[in-house]
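Structure tokens please, single chain.
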Amino acid sequence: MDQVRPSAVRTVALLGASGAGKTTLTEALLHRAGAIPRAGRVEDGTTVSDHEPEEIARGISLGLGVAPLRWRAEDGQTYDVTLLDTPGFLDFAGAVDAALSAADLALVVVSAVDGVQAGTHLAWRAAAEAGVPRVVVVTKEDRARADFHRVLAQLRDTFGDVIVPLELPFGDETAFTGVADVLSEEGHGYDGDGRHHSAPVPAGLLAEEHRLHEEVTEEIVAHDDEQLERYLAGDVPSVADLGRTLAQEVCAGEAVPVLVASGTTGVGVDRLVELLCALCPAPESRTRTVRAGDVEVPVAPDPDGPALLHAFRTTADPFVGQVTLFRVLSGTVRAGDRLVNTTTRTEERLPALFRLRGKEHLPVDVVVAGQVAAVAKLTGTPAGSLLAAKGTPGVSMTAPPVRERPGVYALALDPVTQSDDDRLSAALARLAAEDPTLTVERVGDRTVLRGLGDTHLAVALERLARVFGVHVTTSPVPVGYRETIARPVAAEGKVKKQSGGHGQYAVVQLRVAPLPPGTGFDFVDSVVGGAIPRSYLPAVERGVREAMAAGGPHGFPVVDVRVEVYDGRSHAVDSSDMAFRTAAAAGLKEALATAGTVVLEPVCRVQITVPTSAQGDVMSDLSARRGHITDTVSLDGGEVVVEATVPEAELRRYVLDLRSLTGGRAGLTVLPDHYAPCPDHLTPA
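Here you go.
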């Protein structure tokens, strides 16, 4: 590909509900731009962006699909457009976050059949939180039950006055054969090759089209004092002037245009890419920032400036290893350049550079500010890193923090073979580097994988087997119950063995008492008179700790106890560290058996963001799970945040049940909080 100017670079993230038509639209855009000879089909597993076996098998996007194209626009300029096709399934929201960190514009895709869905709300909110401008495209207008006007009304009711329709379809379903341009009041019909030609606006659409033209014109000029003054004086702005002002409003988030297209028939697709080039902010129009300590520093996309790259996503390629996707924030990079990772301080050499088009690698020699490209084998550069030229101010900068999405669904993993066990940790580390929403923990002697849902983990484990050759079985994560002593008690631990030669002899007198929740363990030495030589006291403490870890009468680790050793006996020949460790452990076990224990269960702090209409159902469900509501906070946009504490045992599948309860519109955060006594009837056997 020839080098382009940063002002002609565009990066567009396609967001929306699963099944809204993002991948089909991506295929249509690539085909219409001449980037691919024919459009693939999701049903056939032949699309560019959904190329992984797991995606083909399920027929949905699971990762971040990248597809560059070139477009010769009506203004005579050639634009370099990178499409970032994101999953619509909530389990894979990490790919959406990565795409938005690199995008200039979010194209929110809404189905003309299904309308505004839970995924539409989530995409809208994600783009708003990331500060990325939005454009809406209504797709599937050619399908049965498609209704553009119904969807437009939903968009206005849901998202308010920022919605600005720029196109109207000539008709719905099979009658969708063209579009009316609201700004120019011109009609565009389509032939079978997906190219438009001038066509009269249908008579039944003329009045609505003219009314919308007046409304949209007034809305646009209202944001420009000079244009508004001329407009009120009778000087109607040209279509070009209105377009430039609208582009400024889009960049500022003051307007969200609505377009219409069919990825299947190609109607409206060329108009869509034309308008994306015109409305998407150029890199210099949106100030990107990095951090210098606690201060945000703007970065100008100057191709002649010092090189600064943002590595926003990594993937594991079975042939070339780790592939790092990056956006050039400043400067121009070439194959062979050496840059410094500003976080790890690792110096990285950039081998061959390429653009990704699905699984295809398109070699490039130069990447300029604003462009998205990829490089292999940067093992010291995790996602979220900056790479800067040595000796430039960029080496002291760091990337803005990535949005944290704590895992809300977990499985315990058991390697199938010893070979799998040997390679499991390294393979999971690479999976987690590829997808930061996956986390790996050790719970006791078990390996636990956490993610955003059951499908998220199922896909991760399939990739674990396919890409890394590591096979595991899964089971629910054991709840981390604990025990504490029920009341203060005194106990004796004794070891007395004689079998010829040196024997084993130790006696310890202990007082064991409960401590406040969360205190942990307190060991007190009250021995006087040398009843136990001081050299053996560390062995006593170690024996107590080992007995606590081994578990109480119910088999769970013991916590929140105070153990005081106040007396004992030793033997000049037969006493040893091992004897006192054993005696101390026996004394603690006797104390627990005598006083009894209380089983403690972990309690989590949950925060749930839901539509106000679902608040009652969610709160009732939490109460049924032994939850305690601690706070509710109303948000703008008809949502409420519910905070509660809930026993961990009640949350194993909660994220799945919550999505079912709220139609997929809930946001969930689960964090450990404290331990509390478990009711007797729920105490595990």
